[in-house]
């Protein structure tokens, strides 16, 4: 777990999140999670993940994960 996201949340976002295409032939998945916790001294109700991926043969490679708190 780094920067407020864990592997399970990334995997869940890829499996059932909203899918759309992104630049350079990549895919973007988005999903909101209930958070109700403090991050960097501020309380947030939700966090939204944007997971950018690319397919390599039979694998999905995660390029980056963007987290937005609200």
Task: Tell me about this structure.
With 70 residues, this protein is mainly beta. The protein is built from 1 helix and 4 strands, in the order αββββ. The protein has one helix at residues 7-16; strands at 18-21, 27-39, 42-56, 59-69. The chain has a 4-stranded antiparallel β-sheet with strand order 1-2-3-4. Strand 3 (42-56) and strand 4 (59-69) form a beta hairpin. The longest helix has 10 residues, at 7-16. It is elongated and about 40 Å long. The mean pLDDT is 92.
Summarize the structure.
This protein is mainly β and 70 residues long.
> What kind of assembly state do the chains in view correspond to?
single chain
Radius of gyration: 13 Å
Which range does the strand content fall in? over 45%
Indicate the percent of residues in helices: 10-25%
